[in-house]
From TrEMBL:
A single GO cellular-component term on record: Golgi membrane
GO annotation terms (biological process): carbohydrate biosynthetic process; dermatan sulfate proteoglycan metabolic process
Subcellular location: Golgi apparatus membrane
Gene name of the encoded protein: Chst9_0
InterPro entries according to UniProt: Carb_sulfotrans_8-10, Sulfotransferase
PANTHER family: CARBOHYDRATE SULFOTRANSFERASE (PTHR12137)
EC number: 2.8.2.-
Top EC class of this enzyme: transferase
Official protein name in the record: Carbohydrate sulfotransferase
Source species, domain of life: Eukaryota
UniProt membrane topology term: Single-pass type II membrane protein
Keyword Transferase attached: yes
Lineage of the organism: Eukaryota, Metazoa, Chordata, Craniata, Vertebrata
Family: Belongs to the sulfotransferase 2 family.
Length: 165
């Protein structure tokens, strides 16, 4: 697209005609991850200054939808999947399998994927972490998190998410 190399990176900086032209000229890939797993990863990476996961979650809930970090904001508010027709939606936990498919579709060698943990190992690890972290939360925090991420849970198939239980 002709304005590809401008400093503007947000779609909101462009007019509707430019947005339509840009989105029509790219292959759009959305990488999604269970919102509870995103919270765990953010906490473990030290992006919150809280001493416990429960207090970190309370900070997230207190910050609300519009004042929080992009690390934990609902994906629906960040990526607008109802407005942008993504060509591919790749779920974390199926990353290796999905990336292989995308590379084949793009005509790139699948063997160029870096060796990593298998998807099943990643899923098992996050399941274990989720159990541990979820048990630290109060019933009210669990309910508030489910409400905070309700649109993500409705938009994407996070059937095994602790927040959808």
């Amino acid at each position: 697209y002709r304005r590809l190399h401008t400093k503007e990176t947000r779609l909101s900086k462009f007019n509707q005609t430019e947005i339509k032209a840009m989105l029509g000229s790219y292959t759009k890939v959305l990488f999604v991850r269970d919102p509870f797993h995103r919270l765990i990863a953010t906490f473990l990476q030290g992006m919150g200054i809280s001493p416990s996961f429960s207090s970190f979650v309370q900070e997230v809930l207190d910050s609300g939808m519009h004042h929080g970090s992009v690390a934990w904001q609902p994906l629906v508010s960040l990526c607008r999947p109802c407005l942008i027709q993504y060509d591919y939606v790749v779920m974390f936990g199926f990353l290796r399998q999905e990336l292989g498919h995308l590379l084949r579709r793009a005509g790139l060698p699948v063997g160029s994927l870096p060796p990593q943990l298998s998807d099943s190992q990643v899923q098992w690890t996050y399941r274990w972490l989720s159990e541990q972290m979820f048990s630290e939360l109060s019933a009210q925090q669990k309910k508030q998190l489910s409400r905070f991420y309700r649109w993500d849970l409705a938009a994407f198939p996070f059937s095994s998410s602790f927040l959808s239980e």
